[in-house]
Amino acid sequence: MSETNSAADVAAPHRYTAAMAADIEARWQDFWDAEGTYEAPNPTGDLAGDPELAAKPKKFIMDMFPYPSGAGLHVGHPLGYIATDVYARHQRMSGHNVLHTLGFDAFGLPAEQYAVQTGTHPRISTEANIENMTAQLRRLGLGHDKRRSFATIESEYYKWTQWIFLQIFNSWYDTDADRARPIAELVAQFESGERATPDGRDWSALSAAERADVLSDHRLAYASDAPVNWSPGLGTVLANEEVTADGRSERGNFPVFKAKLRQWNMRITAYADRLLNDLDGLDWPEAIKLQQRNWIGRSEGARVDFPVDGAGSITVFTTRQDTLFGATYMVLAPEHELVERIIPAAWPDGTHPVWTGGHATPAEAVTAYRKQAAAKSDVERQAEAKDKTGVFTGAYATNPVSGEQIPVFIADYVLMGYGTGAIMAVPAHDARDFAFARAFELPMRCVVEPSDDRGTDASTWEDAFGSYEAKLVNSANDEISLDGLGVVDAKARITDWLKEHGVGEGTVNFRLRDWLFSRQRYWGEPFPIVYDEEGIAHPLPESMLPLELPEVDDYSPRTFDPDDADTQPETPLSRNADWVNVTLDLGDGSGPKKYRRETNTMPNWAGSCWYELRYLDPNNSEKLVDPAIEQYWMGPREGQPTGGVDLYVGGAEHAVLHLLYARFWSKVLHDLGHVSSAEPFHKLYNQGMIQAFVYRDSRGIAVPAAEVEERDGAYYYEGEKVSRVLGKMGKSLKNAVTPDEICGEYGADTLRLYEMAMGPLDVSRPWDTRAVVGQYRLLQRLWRNIVDEESGEVTVVDTEPGEDTLRALHKAIDGVGGDMAGMRFNTAIAKVTELNNHLTKAGGPLPRPVAEALVLLVAPLAPHIAEELWRRLGHTESVVHQDFPVADPAYVVDETVTCVVQIKGKVRARLEISPSITDAELEALALADPAVVAALDGAGIRKVIVRAPKLVNIVPA
User: Fold this and answer.
1) Rounded-to-integer distance, Cα 380 and Cα 361, Å
2) Which of 622, 610, 662 lies closest to 542 in space, CA to CA?
3) How far is CA 415 from CA 128, 268, 395, 411, in A?
């Protein structure tokens, strides 16, 4: 018989059982919904007429957007949701106006895949998943303001996602003002002549297409031919995180190629410095800040131009401009746009056979190598251990400091996504360049003096020598010498020389690349962009938003031979000619015209870039958000100079992409005056993961964890021995436990307590269903201390508690309050348990002040049973908005503490003393203690070390 249906339950009809928990929880969830218990008032209207409410401090608490999976929740998913709920409840009880709600990030690939497989519209399956997940979350008793919930697939939501895209499209970054400005202001500068056009012509002399191209070079959202991960077998472009280390698609294991396609991009690089600098003012884990700093990758160095006859210059960025005299060849990324312009018709005389790759002409060599490089992932291309490959372009560049003609190669170890996509190779002092030079028999020149005995003839070296401490050698021309200088001084001198001669300058480079913002999919936000007959992009007017997805017969993109890199995407939207080709009047004075819609959709990141703002004002159809409401909940304030959500909880796996993208959107909206907060999330907390044991048979296949038996320390499934390892919890691993199961067996309050009691919130921990019963018993003892299990009557008495109980109570109040404020819920539960055990052992009915304080302590953690007990104690107001108990300092301090007295490291006495005793008083008491006197036996004392009130250490003479 289970814990929840024992004979004792039958004998005690009013005992707290799973059945009673289910009844209590359902009743109070209905009550909270009907009464709007968790509805957070906004400052416009609600607070204006309520001075008492207006005086409360606010607290905006958020969880990272959940995706409504068809598999539903397992017990690992609610960990963060329960934690923020406990914290939010404590903050409400501590006098805050708390905004806590939850929506759904509902565009995404899984729903589209399901649609491709079944023909079910993604909206239908997604809404069914949302309904299921909403029911699961409701059962947990989460205190969300449900008026504010939404899903990103709702047209009234993505209308504003599209609107924000248009704000970004219609803006540019003014480096002088260090902020975004409307594109109309840039146009005005071109029209007035304040800003010159790239070729010097008057703005009025440029055609419409030429003006569009000029503006595209400045817009924060722009379309360009971008290198992308193209998977013909899937028929779509993939994000970097969707490509495996061996250059294949994570889904389907198809080959992935590098291709240039017309794609939308966000100019996030314009904000690189601000994204980096503003991290300092955020209350985020240092590990997350470090990941963002590394991703942004700021480095100081120099831009250097290497002239190429007839093709302009190859520009490189280097942090070691001091080694410029040692550059003996150059390498371009295979995708570099200059490659076609610099390759000659034939190989130059004397071209080394190794450089040609066996091809008859440079064009053939480059074409063949590009195809080879396109089949590799960026990870493969950057692998240090791999053999270096490449091919000579047939062109030479001029080293600007030495005047030497140096060969230009293409090689896959140089990527377009880093720097300028071109490097000056200094093989004597860079390991990758050294390996490439050895493979292609290229010269090396030592320009940094080795600290070992290898000498300065680099041709004899076995590896490269790199150092920031050594002196420069072999680095001089008729105008400048770096010989004998250290690296720092040499960098400064050569940088000045480059600028004086117009062949370079000091500059800052970033690892951060512009954000690729296109997907060849159906289930995403349509771009509010149309193209005229000249191919010029036009934004839709706001009156035409939202632009909704059309109905299509086939949700899948066209797929191709997986190995055919020479293919182009065909999106589901592009096949809907009636939707793509339209006649519109855009209100720009040109009247109705024919246009072609953009047939890519936005990535799934788009909807989660700004959802915190929609929570504030979810029904506003006129504005993104009411300024007064945004200022109240998210505006800058003391300790939060850039504003933002007060607490944002989610997994560390979103350290870079989501958080970086959301920060970028927030800064653009701030610059354009739409919001007061320059950062979306002030405080970030990363919860750990609930793990589970995975059991695998001899074939390595996961077996159902619930059906595994343990015998003599080994594990068996259907009689066969299986292995056990700790890992993730999930349906595919056959170890998922649903919250529904635990709620059915013990109740939601027990599940909440168990998940919070498992360990520190930010640490991963293993799930153990057998251990859940411990928290169930805590709730049973709590119930039994207030309610008679036979009669159902409340047993508390209107008497004052004794001294011991008062001390236990107020210590618990003090400890639990501090733990909840610090999100140390496991230790808060331990203190509640300790207090409840004290009351149980004390016996007899509880004094009313103690019973009520105990219920209030439990309320944030187990809200259903607390609400029930609060009502049974005679209160008519919900426990949710009661004041959290405040500890009396007089009872928090121990009346006495135990002081240990040691002689030669051995304990000789224990003294019960006042915690406020002075060192002198404690020393006198210790020396007078009979046990100490006997232990010293007349010996003199050399030293007495006092650490009041806990320790006295006596050192005899």
Assistant:
1) 27
2) 622
3) 43, 19, 19, 9
Name which of 653, 657, 663 is nearest 687 in CA terms: 653
Give the up-direction half-sphere exposure of residue 488: CA atoms within 13 A in the CB hemisphere. 1
Strands 298-307 and 313-318 turn out to be antiparallel
Does residue 630 lie in a domain region?
no
Among 597, 590, 601, smallest CA distance to 537 is for 597
Domain range holding 712? 690-727
Q: Is residue 574 part of a domain?
A: no
Of 703, 727, 751, the residue that ends a domain is: 727
Residue 272: closest CA among 295, 241, 250, 249: 295
How far is Cα 497 from Cα 677, in angstroms, rounded to an integer?
Answer: 43
If one counts the domains in the chain, the total is: 3
Burial of residue 553, with CB atoms counted within 10 A of its CB: 0-12 exposed, 13-18 middle, 19 or more buried:
exposed
Q: What is the pLDDT of residues 512-527, one digit of tens each?
A: 989 989 988 899 999 9
Residue 761 falls within a domain, yes or no?
no
pLDDT reading at 874 higher than 90: yes
**How do residues 81-125 score in pLDDT, each as one tens digit?**
999 999 999 999 999 999 999 999 999 888 888 898 899 999 999
Q: How far apart are CA 322 and CA 295, in angstroms?
A: 26
Q: CA torsion angle for 815, 821, 822, 826 (degrees, to 10)?
A: 60
- The CA distance from 391 to 384, in Å, is 19
* 475, 510, 545 - which closes a domain: 510
Q: Are 106 and 67 in contact (CB under 8 A)?
A: yes
Q: How far apart, in whole angstroms, are the C-alpha atoms of residue 279 and residue 289?
A: 7
CATH code of 417's domain: 3.90.740.10
Summary count for the chain: helices (H), strands (E): 31, 31
The span from the CA of 778 to the CA of 398, in Å, is: 79
At 373, list the tokens: 């490089």
> Which positions ≥6 away from 224 have C-beta within 8 Å?
216, 262, 263, 265
Residue 685 lies in a domain: no
Which residues touch 799 (CB under 8 Å, ≥6 apart)?
847, 848
